[in-house]
Write a structure and sequence with these properties.
Elements: H1 2-57, H2 63-68, H3 71-76, H4 79-92, E1 100-110, E2 115-128, E3 133-142, E4 147-156
Antiparallel strand pairs: 1-2, 2-3, 3-4
Amino acid sequence: MNTMKLSSRSKLSGQGLVVVLILVAILVGIWWYLQSTKAATEKDGIRYGHDIINRLVINHDRSILDNDLAPQAKMEMPPSQRDYLIQRLTQFGSPTQPIKIDDSVSFDTSVFGMVSANPHGIFTAHLNYPAQSVTLQLATSQGATKWLIENITISMGNQPQ
């Protein structure tokens, strides 16, 4: 009779251990998924910011402004201002290569700082043209389906204040 009680207790103890191990494995899997998704999103955001700067500064591609400006940015930057920006960048010519770009992608966090959401980036391109130096700052955020341009600032000489 004592043997039977001992074996039922060990079965319960073994089942509890299995449940704990399964829960730990699930939590580790969730943590790994969140970390890898954050790293991939950050890498994608940096690639996007660099691509936009190259398309504006090197290719003078106005269509990127029409396609990738966020709704609020489209209201703040009407078509005439977009034309003026591309006209100015075209007048400057081509900057010396390679272009130095300072990039920063950050996330808003929630759920005890474990879940990263709402990525946004700030990119500062230091452009050296033959006549002068120019600083271009680009603010981006991830929309529902793609990255968007929130703001573009250009200043002559030093970094914008």
